[in-house]
Design a protein that fits this description.
By secondary structure, this protein is mainly beta. The chain is built from nine helices and 47 strands. The longest helix is centred in the first third of the chain and has 26 residues. Pfam families: CarbopepD_reg_2, DUF5686.
């Protein structure tokens, strides 16, 4: 019986296997993936429609030209790829398999020479009764529902890659003797691609991150789980600063924002609320063989010099009016410095609820001094988003803390991790850049070149643990010191990450006196004292000269260029200043500092400290001593920096910065001669006004309690140099005005070429118009007015060759304004400055020309 059942059993099993195999063959999934390229240029083509032939099932290629199609339909045998201006390509597929099919599309060069179209008059473009404008208004009306911020919660994984190369290099450049040992660095590509035929890769960075969003209370957090970047020798290149600068240049592009940040500028989005007033829109194609159907909407600026995009967007016709794909570029006439070519490709994917989210963005920009020829710099930032999940609430701890957090082991990921995690495969040139740069830095000639470049550009000569500089302070001159020679430097993190020392020594040939400075800083969090968040204690002593009321911005006091000044420049001080400061910064950008200052000041040059004795005779006072305790509270929400190993420069942004300072003078403490309290508050904010440019506004107010001589009053920031200073009064003389209570406002508006771009011929120069107004209200109370108390130091009068003196502000505010032209030679701003009040003061200038040099895009 057993022998009879065994053959029957085996036949049954065999029959079941045959049936199962047949079933799985009939219903196996067919997967087709690949990349679509231009047959001529070999460049990837985004937004190409790829579908199964004979069906409505299709998809558009992403920003990298990649596609993936899948089906269980056993009747499909082919796929087709179509794009406007190209021949449709058809390829056979194998059913039931996962296969890769790459497609190269050829241009459709069919001639239309026999068709002649003549028009008596070109039809004027108008928004009225324009279906393209009606469509874009629907997109604008549906913006809110199509943004991530519409969800209560959202989370996703993000991969980011950024790379920079020297671009458009000629064979002559490549074959120069200096590059004989560097040939392994060069990269070849199609000559029609952005960047030209030959590139020299110099930088690359990759990041993987987990991202979380919560609508209420609002929170957006990024946790960087992996980070890999090209590392240069810290003695020559500040890797942190390099990363911060590149990230500022290549920010996220959110087409749903009214204004898109690009290269420190803001460009009006084609789907901004006011876009129909600045753009022309045209319906150029409809794609009905994809689901949902798409309308191709092309757009171009009404004025090609304005900060606007041009390109195409693909709108879904499913009731969402969402952007599925976007191709953004800029016109060659745009008032944007150094940009040769710019291209941004955005791709969006459908969520489970039928709406769309950004799945990939690819931003490419080439820069050059000459927009038409010569070498330049090519950069690309690719962002890919995956695992997008909506309305999945996390614990509150997930959203707490700073907006960006770097995992402790983020830089420890090996090559295997990156190969498994990257959403795409690096090409050979990109994959080898990490190794190539490491090899480059072992070449002696490269080290020598970087050493010279560091001295020229940064002003410091590096000796490992110590840097000598800055070079622009080695020599200067002024009426008090004569020719001034100075030498100094600072330690670097090579010596220690906790201890920092800075020093200099100087000598004046006229006063024949030595000056010096010593500073020692200890980091309490084992990070650079310049790194965010700061937490350090510093002690310093300075014996040097100073001009009362001069506020220097981003420059050293003995900078050679500041030696040139208008008018009399003989009001000086000799200072002995000991400071002890503690600074503590939190991750929410709230910080506080506590300080002690022991200050001895002695008048120098034409400056005299005098009071009246009881007998009516003048008495010269040669020394004023103060001891101060101080506290500062600062809040700068969402503040960003250009972060370096030995510097930190804030990046202007739309968020305000609040600062509150309190100073307490203590009589009897280490020789202090006065009791007083001084409170100063400051608010600084940039307002972006879209196509009308941006406005920087600074407001400040202060009140001093107590009875003090005039050198301890608020001496308002004056400027007698020929450089235009944003936070100083450019036509006020040094120590011209003092106050014990004051309020001020400074407004600097940059139109970004909005007016000049509309003037024929002038618009070709790409100049930018600027207006600036500063007003100061204040005064001196009776108790601090030496006219009411002879024992107080008299306000200097008829001081210096120009007869200038010191005054208290009256009922009339000090007002000055300027009109300026910026972007001259892409670097220079020239202002005509006019003073409107207190023109009767001796030596008060009525007007002047001031210069400001700034590298900006």
């Amino acid at each position: 019986m057993k022998r009879l059942l065994t053959p029957l059993y085996n036949k049954s099993i065999l029959m079941m296997l045959i049936l199962f195999t047949s079933f799985t063959t009939l219903h196996a999934q067919t997967i087709v993936r690949g990349i679509v390229t231009d047959a001529k240029t070999k460049e990837a083509m985004p937004y190409v429609t790829v579908s199964f032939a004979g069906t409505t099932q299709g998809i558009s290629t992403n920003g990298q030209g990649r596609y993936t199609l899948s089906t269980t339909d056993n009747t499909v045998t082919q796929i087709k790829a179509s794009f406007v201006g190209y021949r449709t390509a058809v390829r056979n597929i194998t059913q039931g398999q996962d296969q890769t099919i790459n497609i190269a599309l050829a241009e459709n060069s069919q001639a239309l020479s026999e068709v002649v179209i003549r028009s008596g008059k070109k039809k004027k473009y108008t928004n009225k009764n324009n279906p393209a404008v009606e469509l874009i208004r629907q997109v604008i009306a549906h913006k809110a529902q199509n943004q991530v911020e519409n969800y209560n919660y959202a989370e996703y994984k993000q991969y980011e890659r950024m790379n920079f190369s020297l671009s458009n290099l000629s064979d002559k450049f490549r074959n120069k003797k200096i590059f004989k040992n560097y040939q392994f660095l060069f990269r070849e590509q199609d000559s029609t691609a952005i960047g030209g035929k030959t590139l020299l890769p110099m930088y690359q960075e990759e990041k993987m991150s987990d991202n979380y969003f919560r609508k209420d209370p609002y929170a957006k957090k990024q946790i960087i789980t992996a980070n890999k970047q090209v590392k240069y020798d810290e003695n020559f290149v500040d890797n942190q600063g390099l990363t911060a600068y590149f990230n500022r240049m290549y920010q996220d592009i959110n087409i749903y924002d009214n204004n898109v940040s690009l290269l420190s500028n803001q460009l009006l989005s084609p789907i901004a609320n006011s876009s129909p007033e600045f753009y022309k829109f045209f319906i150029t194609d409809t794609l009905k063989d994809v689901k949902p159907n798409l309308i191709e909407l092309s757009f171009t600026p009404r004025n090609t010099n304005n900060l606007l995009f041009e390109g195409k967007i693909y709108i879904t016709m499913d009731g969402n009016y969402a952007v599925q794909n976007a191709m953004l570029t800029v016109n060659k006439n745009i008032n944007l410095n150094f940009v040769r070519q710019m291209q941004a490709n955005l791709s969006f994917e459908k969520n489970n609820d039928g709406r769309y989210h950004l799945s990939q963005s690819d931003l490419k920009i080439e820069f050059g001094i000459n927009k038409n020829k010569g070498g330049g710099i090519y950069g690309e930032r690719l962002v890919s988003i995956s695992n997008f999940v909506i309305n999945n609430a996390r614990t509150n701890d997930t959203y707490k803390g700073p907006a960006q957090v770097v995992a402790l082991n983020a830089e420890d990921k090996d090559d295997t991790y990156w190969q498994m995690t990257r959403p795409d495969t690096l090409d050979a040139a990109s994959a080898s850049i990490y190794k190539n740069i490491d090899s480059l830095q072992t070449i002696p000639s490269f080290k020598k070149t970087m050493d010279i470049a560091t001295l020229v550009l940064a002003g410091y000569k590096n000796f490992g643990a110590f840097e000598l500089g800055p070079a622009n302070t080695f020599y200067s001159f002024n009426p008090v010191e004569g020719f001034r020679v100075r030498i100094g430097g600072r330690t670097t993190p090579t010596l220690s990450k906790r201890y920092y020392f800075e020093t200099y020594g100087a000598y004046g040939t006229r006063d024949e006196k030595f000056k010096y400075f010593l500073s020692s800083t200890y980091s309490l969090n084992n990070k650079s004292i310049y790194s965010f968040p700061q937490n350090y204690i510093r002690a310093s002593f300075q014996h040097d000269t100073k001009i009362p009321g001069q506020e220097l911005q981003f420059v050293q006091e003995s900078n050679f260029l500041l030696s040139f000044k208008r008018g009399a420049n003989d009001i000086w001080l000799y200072n002995d200043i000991f400071r002890l400061d503690y600074v503590h910064e939190f991750t929410n950008h709230l910080s506080y500092s506590l300080g002690f200052k022991k200050w001895n000041q002695t008048p120098a040059g034409a400056l005299l400290y005098q009071n009246l004795l009881p007998n009516g005779s003048l008495n010269n006072v040669n020394l004023i001593q103060t001891s101060e305790l101080s506290a500062q509270l600062r809040w700068a929400p969402h503040e960003k920096f250009y972060q370096g190993k030995l510097y930190r420069t804030p990046i202007p942004d739309k968020y305000p910065i609040f600062t509150l300072n309190y100073t307490q003078g203590v009589k009897g403490l280490l020789g202090g001669e006065y009791n007083y309290q001084n409170v100063v508050g400051n608010i600084n904010k940039r307002f972006y006004l879209s196509q009308f440019g941006f406005t920087d506004v600074t407001t400040e107010g202060g009140y001093l309690f107590g009875k003090v001589p005039f050198p301890l009053l608020d001496i308002h920031h004056a400027n007698q140099t020929y450089a235009f200073q944003l936070q100083s009064y450019n036509l006020m003389n040094f120590q011209e005005f003092v106050s014990d209570h004051y309020a001020s406002i400074a407004v600097d508006h940059n139109f970004n070429g909005f007016i000049f771009n509309r003037i024929p011929l002038l618009k070709r120069l790409k100049l930018r118009e600027i207006i600036d107004v500063k007003s100061l209200w204040g005064g001196v109370r009776k108790e601090n007015d030496p006219a009411n108390d002879p024992s107080l130091l008299r306000f200097p009068g008829s001081v210096g060759a120009n007869g200038a003196g010191t005054y208290a502000l009256g009922s009339t505010p000090y007002v000055e304004g300027s009109v300026g032209v910026g972007n001259i030679f892409k670097l220079l701003r020239i202002d005509y400055v006019r003073r409107f009040t207190y023109l009767d003061h001796p030596g008060a200038p009525r007007s002047g020309i001031r210069f400001f040099v700034k590298f900006d895009f």
